[in-house]
Amino acid sequence: MKSTNKIKFFGDFTTGENYQSGYDVNLRINVLRQYGYDSLMEQVKGFFENSYNIVNLESPITNCTKSGLMGKKSVLHWTDPVVVPSFMKKYGIDAASLGNNHAWDYELEGLKQTIESLDNVDIKHFGAGIDVESAKAPLQETFEIGSHKLNLYVFGGYKYKQEYVEEFDFYARKNKGGVFKLVPEDSCADIHLIKEEDPDAFIVMYPHFGFDLLNKAEHQVEYAKAWIDAGADMVIGHGPHLLNQIEYYKDKPIIYALGVFIFPVNFRYAVNEYCAVCEVEFVEDNGKLKPITRLYPLHFDNGSFTPVTRPVNDDEIEGFISTLTNDEPEIKNRIKVYKGCIYCIEL
């Protein structure tokens, strides 16, 4: 049982060896070789303190060199199985979603190696597995907060995409490993069941959806509202690699995309450079636990070959708020912006 009352959700996380090795070939700067892995975390390591920390691990941890997806899928991710698990553990990552469009890049062997690597350093994983039952199983943790116990459930998985069925065979099935296809028709019944058995459970949907480098799409809105209708308490998305706007539905927050967290790659496009960490703190209120949701605004210079993730500065906060709220007055008036050592936005 965990004792912290703060849970943090981070966006897309990879140390990017597949990209950095390519930069070596093309005479670019390989930040891992030149500056070291710790340089990736230098300005954001404090976010992992005093909280339970969940990331979207957007790379298999594998040394596989062959995949049936080579020549079919445009980009295959991989990270170093010797370095990366201990690197993640060192900074305080407690759980990783594998429910994304890269966890199956090196198919079953790569996924098994990823799972084994995380197990070896006691990092929980969810969102993909060796069959559909293990892939769809949510992360479950119990937290002791004062005199209360909080049962947390976090569902991870990847949206439906036709080519991932027909060309890549990416999704888990009854006797086949893969990523969980996280769509309402395959998950709402599980949300209902959890709430029936444990009405005070706190359920977070943590989907990889949307489109790369774009703002929220229609399917994101449809999925998120269906999950909340089914009983989910909030939706915290990732996938587009940049910050998407927020929305409230039935008085529950929907964060359509946190953006990247650690992702050392040059995206080569002129897109917004904002991302965020989401913190949910549980406090006692009238004899019950009440969630308080905060965002910590970040900047990621995605047009650089040496990208750095860091807190936004005074010149950037207004742009962040504009992106987060889509300049909608109702949402702007609802959020509260605080500044200490860094900016914090309470939803």
Report on this structure.
This protein has helices at 17-25, 31-34, 84-90, 107-120, 132-136, 162-166, 188-197, 218-230, 317-325, 329-334, and strands spanning 6-13, 52-57, 95-97, 124-126, 128-129, 139-145, 148-158, 178-179, 202-208, 234-236, 246-249, 252-255, 260-262, 274-285, 288-300, 309-311, 336-339, 343-346. It has 347 residues and is of the alpha/beta class. The strands form three sheets. Strands 1, 2, 3, 4, 13, 14, 15, 16, 17 and 18 form a ten-stranded mixed β-sheet that branches. The chain has a six-stranded mixed β-sheet with strand order 6-7-9-10-12-11, covered by helices on one side. It has a two-stranded antiparallel ribbon with strand order 5-8.
| Proportion in β-strands | 25-35%
Give a short account of the largest sheet. 10 strands, mixed
| Overall pLDDT confidence | 96
Number of helices: 10
Q: What share of residues is helical?
A: 10-25%
pLDDT below 50 for ≥5 consecutive residues: which ranges? Answer: none
Order of helices and strands: EHHEHEHEEHEEHEHEHEEEEEEEHHEE
Radius of gyration of CA atoms, rounded to a whole number: 19 Å
Q: Give the overall shape, derived from the CA principal axes.
A: globular
Total beta-strand segments: 18
What structural class do helix, strand and pairing data support? alpha/beta
The end-to-end span amounts to 28 Å
Quick recap:
The protein is α/β, with parallel strands linked by helices.
Topology readout:
Elements: E1 6-13, H1 17-25, H2 31-34, E2 52-57, H3 84-90, E3 95-97, H4 107-120, E4 124-126, E5 128-129, H5 132-136, E6 139-145, E7 148-158, H6 162-166, E8 178-179, H7 188-197, E9 202-208, H8 218-230, E10 234-236, E11 246-249, E12 252-255, E13 260-262, E14 274-285, E15 288-300, E16 309-311, H9 317-325, H10 329-334, E17 336-339, E18 343-346
Parallel strand pairs: 1-2, 1-13, 2-3, 3-4, 7-9, 9-10, 10-12
Antiparallel strand pairs: 1-14, 5-8, 6-7, 11-12, 14-15, 15-16, 15-18, 17-18
